[in-house]
């Protein structure tokens, strides 16, 4: 049966093709900028849509549900789904699914390690220095960094992404400590990772901290002023999870005052806004939420998202429902 699908922004063709091959009418928002909630609502008013393929920048809550009662399924083109009010969807019998691609976990884990290595080896600072014409020849004291081999990594959250980061870090010769609401026996057995019962126990012991928790009420500002003060002054913080997991104001203070040595961020508390104070700091590496932006990952995410829609309309349970 024909279905109307709205896609809030362009995604890789492979996903659109899967939907069109099923005979569905697929309307893709032609604008490349992030749509406001008002714009999404105005699109949804134009037609009776059956499903919406959303992005993590789309705020989907009861205001959207109310104007589009025909939409029975929202599929988020992302692993996270904190942009969708899943409880309000459930109340209305609306199904929400995400697109947690295996490739995405790999890509984010690789990006996390890249940020750690950038901080340790000061690659970004060195690049800026060379481009500014300041390099006048080898110097024994230029951009002294730190080794990662032999250092300790503290992971907060060891699900799909955190578990992979643990594996890569182990291969780099790091010792792994972790904390999670669930014990991860696999990384304990295979990577000799040591469990800590809380961030408070983990933070004072590690040289790098990497965050891999979803954004929940319990993880908002999980890294705050108190926690930053518990870290070693030589330690680095890496966040590729969600911006609000870190209190960004407290982080800016900690970096400015060398409470910690540096930070690598792919996500920001008030995305896409980044405070000018943070951008001025030298001891920080910033990337624009691109940790999962590999060709392979984005194609796989589009396939998963589209297949969730097909499964739903062909009477199968979509594999990635997040509000059942
Ligand atoms: P996952 O669900 O596999 O793992 C999350 C882990 O966090 C789980 O082991 C869970 O038990 C743990 N956890 C939950 N609450 C906790 C708490 N209060 N304290 C400690 N541990 C807690 O998720 P994942 O696939 O590893 O992804 C993690 C997050 O990474 C996603 O939710 C998403 O927000 C983010 N992400 C970011 C990008 C990016 O582009 N930067 C891409 C993909 C995912």
Write a structural description.
- It is a single chain.
- The two termini are 25 Å apart.
- The strands form 2 sheets. The chain has a 7-stranded parallel β-sheet, with helices on one face. The chain has a 5-stranded parallel β-sheet with strand order 2-1-3-4-5.
- Helix 5 (102-121) packs across helix 7 and helix 5 packs antiparallel against helix 13 (295-313).
- It has 2 domains: 4-101 and 295-313, NAD(P)-binding Rossmann-like Domain (Rossmann fold), CATH 3.40.50; 104-286, 3-Layer(aba) Sandwich (Rossmann fold), CATH 3.40.50.720.
- It has helices at 13-21, 37-46, 62-67, 86-91, 102-121, 123-131, 160-171, 185-191, 199-202, 225-230, 248-256, 276-280, 295-313, and strands at 4-7, 25-28, 51-54, 73-76, 95-97, 152-156, 175-179, 194-195, 208-211, 236-239, 262-265, 284-286.
- The chain is globular and about 70 Å long.
- By secondary structure, the chain is of the alpha/beta class.
- It contains 13 helices and 12 strands.
- The protein binds nicotinamide-adenine-dinucleotide.
- Nicotinamide-adenine-dinucleotide is lined by residues 79-80, 100, 104-105, 108, 156-162, 179-182, 212-216, 218-219, 240-242, 266-267, 289, 291-292.
């Amino acid at each position: 049966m024909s279905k109307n699908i709205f896609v809030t922004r362009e995604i890789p063709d492979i996903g659109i093709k899967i939907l069109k091959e099923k005979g569905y009418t697929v309307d893709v928002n032609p604008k490349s900028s992030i749509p406001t909630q008002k714009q999404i609502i105005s699109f949804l008013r134009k037609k009776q849509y059956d499903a919406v393929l959303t992005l993590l920048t789309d705020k989907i809550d009861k205001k959207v549900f109310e104007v589009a009662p025909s939409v029975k399924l929202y599929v988020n083109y992302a692993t996270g789904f904190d942009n969708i009010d899943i409880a309000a969807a459930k109340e209305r019998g609306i199904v929400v699914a995400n697109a947690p691609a295996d490739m995405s976990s790999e890509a984010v884990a690789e990006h996390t390690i890249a940020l750690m290595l950038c901080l340790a080896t000061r690659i970004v600072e060195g690049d800026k220095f060379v481009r500014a014409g300041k390099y006048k020849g080898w110097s024994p004291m230029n951009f002294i960094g730190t080794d990662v081999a032999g250092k300790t990594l503290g992971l907060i959250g060891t699900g799909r992404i955190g578990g992979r980061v643990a594996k890569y870090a182990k291969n780099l010769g790091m010792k792994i400590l972790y904390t999670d609401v669930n014990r991860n026996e696999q990384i304990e057995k295979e990577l000799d990772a040591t469990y800590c019962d809380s961030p408070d126990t983990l933070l004072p012991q590690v040289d790098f901290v990497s965050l891999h928790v979803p954004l929940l009420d319990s993880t908002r500002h999980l890294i705050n002023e108190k926690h930053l003060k518990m870290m070693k002054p030589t330690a680095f913080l890496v966040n590729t999870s969600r911006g609000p997991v870190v209190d960004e104001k407290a982080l800016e203070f900690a970096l400015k005052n060398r409470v910690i040595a540096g930070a690598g961020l792919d996500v920001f508390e008030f995305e896409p806004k980044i405070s000018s104070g943070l951008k001025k700091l030298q001891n920080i590496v910033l990337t624009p939420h691109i940790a999962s932006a590999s060709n392979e990952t984005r194609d796989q995410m589009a396939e998963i998202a589209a297949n969730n829609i097909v499964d739903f309309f062909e009477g199968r349970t979509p594999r990635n429902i997040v509000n059942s």
